[in-house]
Known about the structure:
The longest helix is centred in the N-terminal third of the chain and has 16 residues, at 6-21.
Amino acid sequence: xxxxxxxxxxxxxxxxxxxxSYQKRQILLCAGTGCIAGGALKLYDYFKEECARRGVARLRxxxxxxxxxxxxxxxxxxxxxxxxxxxNGRPVMLLYELNF
Length: 100
C-alpha cells in the first residue's frame, strides 16, 4: 500500500464527499411493539410535524411482518404497505409509506 500523504488524503476526501452526495438521507425510527410502548410514536409525531414544516413530501417506516398490532397502528395513521420483503417465501418485513 502506498504511503499516505496530504495529496492522497485529499483525493480520498473528495471521493468520499462525492459518494455521500449520491446517498439518500434517511432517519430510521424503530416502531416495533417495545419501542412503541417506550414512546416511539411521540418521536414519530415530532418527525411528521418537522417534515411538514421543512416541506418533506413523505415518510417511510418499516416493521416486522409478524407485528399485527404495529401494522394496524400504521394503517390507521394513513400509511400504506408499499413493499413486502420475503425470506424463504415468508414475509419478514413490511415497508410503509405516508404521502402528505
